[in-house]
Each structure stands twice: as C-alpha cells, then as structure tokens.
Amino acid sequence: MKKFRYLLFDLDGTLTYSHKGIFACIRYALEKTGLPVPSDETLRHCIGPSLDWSFTNIFGLDWETSKRATAFYRERYSAVGWKENEPIEGALAALEALRKKGYTLALATSKPLVFASQISELFGFKRYLSVEVGSGLNGEFPTKAAVIEEAVRQLNANKADCLMIGDRKHDIEGAREAGVAVAALDIGYAQPEEFSAYPPDLYFSSFDELLKAL
Question: Is 10 a catalytic residue?
C-alpha cells in the first residue's frame, strides 16, 4: 500500500458519535421554523454534510428559511448540543499510535471550527492534531472539498502524501474533488451500500484494521 505522510480525519462518525446533539438541535431548529419534526431515520442523513446542505436538500427549505433554521440550530448547539457527544472507542488511542508511527494528523470536518475545536479539546484529540480545519460560521469553507483543500494548505503538504479518513460519501466526494486519496472508516453513519455507490480508495471496518494497514 502507498505510504502516506498526512492523515486528515473527519469528526462526526469517525472520531465521535455526535447524533444525539445533532438530532436534538435539528428538531429544535425545525420546530422553531414551524416545520414537522423528522424521524431518526431521516435525521441520520444529516450527519456528515453541512447544515445548509441538509436543510435545503433533505428538508427542502429555501435559502432564507435554511439560514433561519441554521441560526436556531446553532442557538441550541452552542449551549448544549456540542456536549451531547461521545468519543468513539479506540479513536484517541488510534490518534496516539499514528502520531508515534510518524504521521502528521489533521482534523478536516464540515462542522464549524469553533465547535469542532471544543469537541477536539474535550475528548483529548487536540494534542495529536497539527491542524484543525472546519467550516466557518460566516460561510467560509462551505464544502468538504474546501475544508480538505484548506487542511492541505495549512499542513503545507503535497496532496499525493495525504489521506482523508471519513465515514460518509461526503468525505469521499470531497476528497475526490480536492484531489486527495480517501479511506472509508465504516464505524459511523454510512447508509447501507453507501460505499458500494461511492467506493473509497481504501476501506477499514475498525480502528484496528486502519492501524494494521497504516
């Protein structure tokens, strides 16, 4: 297998299980907007892409309503939602082991950086990460490809030396657009057959598998 130097990790579904807070905040946002409360099955599709994408593509909101819903979401998320989260078993140990192997690690998430950085610190990830990149509350880095591009820039890395690791098709699509190799870590929120429809360059079913391969 090709040897990489830089590993870019997604957050939700890759390093943490974040659905409790995300589900609660989307329901809060839709209720405040006067819309029906969705099922867990529908909400599961919202983990991975940006809020704007979810509100417009999954719930069919227009641009103005989507912006209002996003503001309501962040109202609750900034207070309690970001804490309604838990680290995935083995994530912290994997980051530590990969750093010891000589990899440079980065966080590359569509979650706003202000929240992603808080979560990274809360669960002890931050000490192993050379770079943390997320979207901006002002619309900066609105796509996964833009996030990955910025992480590569901050790392001052050659794209050929980088591997994006995530749990959803959005990570695969973003990495492809950014010109970076991508691995699926199938421990998160992927739908059945998702990786058949969006094949990654590498596939791991656990952190143990990932560590043995890398």
Answer: yes
DSSP character at residue 59: S
Domains of the chain: 6-17+86-213 (3.40.50.1000), 19-83 (1.10.150.240)
Task: Give the pLDDT confidence of 46-59 residue by residue, as tens digits.
Answer: 987 888 889 999 99
Interval 144-170 mean pLDDT: 97
Residues of 140-176 as b/e, b for ≥16 C-beta within 10 angstroms? ebebbbbbbbbbbeebebeeebbbbbbbbbbbbbbbb
Residue 110, H or E segment: strand 104-112
The whole-model pTM stands at 0.91
Average pLDDT value over all residues in the chain: 95
Residue 102 buriedness (CB in 10 A; 0-12 / 13-18 / 19+):
exposed
